[in-house]
Design a protein that fits this description.
single chain, 4 helices, 37% helix
Amino acid sequence: MENIQTEEQCGRRQTPATKNKIARAMKGDKNPAYKDGRRSYREKVGAKKGQLVHHRDENRHNNKAGNLRVIKKSDRGKHDKIHKRARNFKK
C-alpha cells in the first residue's frame, strides 16, 4: 500500500524568489558554517577534488601550511600505513 501525501501534508513549497532571499540572507558571516573569513586547510595547500590532505602532526586543528601535505587518492594506502605506524609507536 502506497503512502501518498497531499500537498498540505508535505509542507509549503518555496518559490524561486523566496529561495533567493534565503540564500542572500545566509551569505558570509550570517551563514552558520562561516569561519571568520579564514580559508579552509584544503584551499591553503591547493588540494583538488579527489586528493587527500595529510596533517603531519595528526592534529586536525593545526592547519598551518607547513603541517599539511597533499596526497593523491591513489596513495591512500600509503596514507593509512603512515597513521597505522604512528598509532603503533604511541602504545
